[in-house]
Design brief:
Layout: E1 3-9, E2 12-17, E3 22-26, H1 40-62, E4 66-78, E5 86-98, H2 102-116, H3 118-125, E6 129-138
Parallel strand pairs: 5-6
Antiparallel strand pairs: 1-2, 2-3, 4-5
Helix pairs in contact: 1-2
InterPro entries: KH_dom-like_a/b (IPR015946), OsmC/Ohr_fam (IPR003718), OsmC/Ohrsf (IPR036102)
Organism: Acinetobacter qingfengensis
Protein name: Osmotically inducible protein C
Length: 141
């Protein structure tokens, strides 16, 4: 896996992934940014949510659960010292579908957290306390 990051101006950067997708990162105006994109640390948090959600969707589909939506809401605390690393992250999954089995959803969340999510393992190994919970919403129709 590869990526490149190119400085655009002030505190704005363009990141390009090896799959040729681009993301603009920018700082807040207080640091000279123009708020043109997410902050780099926000991307790390979003990447964790995407990685975990990918696992959960895949696991639930394999277990033949009729999911219609999965949303991951993340809340993170950061150190007040520099570097301002994440200290705690909580992932709350809202899983929507038809006749979903709570046991299957719980297992999918646990497997993602403990076995499959590379981003979660990397952050946890770096000292971040990561917690998870979920709720199930019955899909209409």
């Amino acid at each position: 896996m590869q990526a490149s990051v190119q400085w655009l101006d002030n505190v704005s950067f363009k990141a390009i992934s090896s799959s040729e997708h681009e993301v603009i990162m920018d700082g807040s105006p207080e640091y000279g940014g123009q708020n043109r994109g997410p902050r780099p640390m926000e991307l790390i948090l979003m990447g964790l949510g995407g990685c975990a959600s990918f696992d959960i969707v895949t696991i639930l589909k394999k277990s033949r659960q009729d999911i219609t939506d999965v949303k991951c809401e993340l809340n993170a605390d950061r150190s007040s010292d520099i570097p301002a690393v994440f200290t705690k992250i909580h992932l709350h999954f809202v899983v929507t579908g038809h006749a979903l089995k709570e046991k299957q959803v719980a297992k999918a969340v646990e497997l993602s957290a403990e076995k499959y999510c590379s981003a979660s393992k990397m952050l946890r190994d770096g000292g971040v306390e990561i917690t998870h919970d979920f709720e199930i919403v019955d899909a209409i129709n």
